[in-house]
Amino acid sequence: MLSATSYLGVISLCLPLQMSTFQDWFWEIKECGQGPHYYFSATFAASDAERLAALVRQHPLSGFEHCHFVGNLINAPCGDANYQGSYDLYVDQSNYAEVMSGIQRDEPIITVAHCVWEIIGVCDRNFGIESGYGGITGTDNQADTSLIMALAQSPELTLVDWRVVSGGDGYASVFFRTGTSAAELLAYLQMQPEKPDFMQIERELRLALSDPALSKIYRLGECKINGWRLEVVILHDIQKTTSSYGGEGWDMTPHTTKLYKVAQIVSDKCKVPGCVSGAAHAPNDFYTLIGSHLSFGYPRQ
After folding, report:
1. Residues in contact with 26: Cβ distance below 8 Å, sequence separation at least 6, in sequence order
2. 143 to each of 13, 122, 135, 138, 251, how far by Cα in Å?
């Protein structure tokens, strides 16, 4: 069995960490060619809310404009849906006017003017980043990664958990990495992809599917190793439906929702990207659906 490499080494906060030794927080999303949008979220200790807001305000964020407001914003990159509270938003300059106009009109969602955007949010003790179609940051602007590092290294804050995800605009969520400490986050920003432990992934997948609520619906089908990725077929009973117009189709919704949670659980435990990657068709019959595809790992040979 291949042993998973641990990246949870001790990070010394006594020595300054150079930006050149770190990658963008979305490096693994780019490695896998996923998207279209990139999401980072983090939760800090309940007593950290005021310090979190203050530290973000003090950090230089090149290319962003700041606004503070109290209200209800459904799709802010921090906080829960329909959360009523106090927000700090940092919006890339090209979209700032449009976002502010929407807030003034009391719109329930953030609207942007351009197809690429970047919004950083602070809501109480929650911090989040939404990079639309990759956002404005990259090799020429690492403001958001620099901010993440500053928060993780701050002795004034206690990081409780964090997560990196991609998806949006109808694309399935891909779960990349989660952690429960600043040390894990800083280590993640320095690591390189490694070949996954496929035996561990299959073991955790079988364990997740053994849940009585899931074992009645799903069973593990073919598992195939393709380079650095494990491609899995999950079999389940998909019913044909007839629309009001008389057309036939397949109702996947009742089945795939629970599989997203399975993909997330396995991804978290195995520290490897995981996603529900589409419908599985019957052998030699493209028009009959028999289940769903899950994949874990990297598109490398």
Report:
1. 38, 40, 131, 134, 164, 166
2. 20, 16, 11, 9, 43
In tens, the pLDDT along 229-271 reads: 999 999 987 776 665 565 666 666 666 788 999 999 999 999 9
pLDDT of residue 228: 97
Q: Roughly what angle, to the nearest 10 degrees, separates helices 49-58 and 143-153? A: 140
Token pair 């117009």 is at which residue?
Answer: 245
DSSP 209-257: HTSHHHHTTEEEEEEEEETTEEEEEEEE-PPEEE-TTS-EEE--HHHHH
Structure tokens at 128: 């989040």
Q: How far apart are the first and last CA of the chain?
A: 19
d(CA 127, CA 108): 20
Q: How far apart are CA 103 and CA 50, in angstroms?
A: 23
Alpha-carbon distance of 107 to 101, in angstroms, equals: 9
190 three-state secondary structure: coil
Query: For 9-23, 53-67, 172-186, 280-294, which range has the lowest pLDDT when averaged over its residues?
Result: 9-23
> Max CA-CA distance within the chain?
69
Q: Which residues partner with 159 through β-bridges?
A: 44
Average per-residue pLDDT for the chain: 86
Contacts of 128 (CB under 8 A, 6+ apart): 39, 40, 41, 42, 76, 77, 78, 79, 120, 121
Least confident span in 1-15, 194-208, 237-251: 1-15
Q: Give 3 or 84, the one with higher predicted confidence.
A: 84
pTM (2 decimals)?
A: 0.85
Please tell me the distance from the alpha carbon of residue 110 to that of residue 99, in angstroms, as a whole number: 6
CA-to-CA distance for 26 and 39, rounded, in angstroms? 8
